[in-house]
Amino acid sequence: MESKLKVSGIIEESIVDGPGLRFTVFTQGCPHHCPGCHNPQTHDFEGGKWMELDEIMAMFDEDPLLAGMTFSGGEPFCQPAPLAELARQVRARGKNIVAYSGYTFEQLSEMAAHNPDIEALLSMCDLLIDGPYVEARRDLDLLFRGSTNQRILDLKNYPEVKDVSDQL
């Protein structure tokens, strides 16, 4: 079990990173480098700081009003093992998990076939917002997304997936 996560930052109460009041963890390190990314400080894999999962969960447990935890980035699927463990602990508390990824679900599924940690993280997610941010497709009216190519996928019945982008 991984006990540490490389973190760029944490927002303890967010209403823009998924449904309900969210605890958002911004992971450090991203291979995508999407032009126009609103978190370019998260790209460098050498940046950020290491945090113990217990420390993150202690912060999360301070707020009983939270609907769940969101993994953003950076690219969360570059650190799937500690995030899968964090998600397991959040789900054990009856809360939900939302993850953002610059990879599409199809790409993550291929990666999961060779990496059980990615499979474990996908299986813990309630919602996945997938796909790279595409500046030419930017739309500020989209819920939880920055560009029209990105989808909101319901993974509650993973590996079955349902696109709910237009239903929330």
SS summary, helix count:
4
Q: Give, in order, the helices and strands.
A: EEEHEHEHHEEE
Number of E-type strands:
8
Instruction: Strand order, main sheet: write it out.
Output: 3-1-2-4-5-6-7-8
Uncertain runs: none
N-to-C CA distance = 34 Å
As a percent range, the share of helical residues equals 10-25%
Summarize model confidence as the mean pLDDT. 95
Q: Using the alpha-carbon principal axes, give the shape.
A: globular
Give the structural class: alpha/beta
Residue share in β-strands? 15-25%
Radius of gyration: 15 Å
The largest sheet, given as strand count, sense and whether it forms a barrel, is:
8 strands, mixed
Descriptive account of the structure:
There is one protein chain. By secondary structure, the chain is of the alpha/beta class. The chain is 23% helix and 24% strand. It contains four helices and eight strands. The protein has helices at residues 53-61, 80-92, 105-112, 116-124, and strands at 4-14, 22-27, 49-52, 68-72, 96-100, 127-130, 151-154, 162-163. An eight-stranded mixed sheet has the order 3-1-2-4-5-6-7-8. Helix 2 (80-92) packs parallel to helix 4 (116-124) and helix 3 packs across helix 4 (116-124). The termini are far apart.
List the helices and strands and how they pair.
Elements: E1 4-14, E2 22-27, E3 49-52, H1 53-61, E4 68-72, H2 80-92, E5 96-100, H3 105-112, H4 116-124, E6 127-130, E7 151-154, E8 162-163
Summarize the structure.
This protein is an alpha/beta fold and 168 residues long.
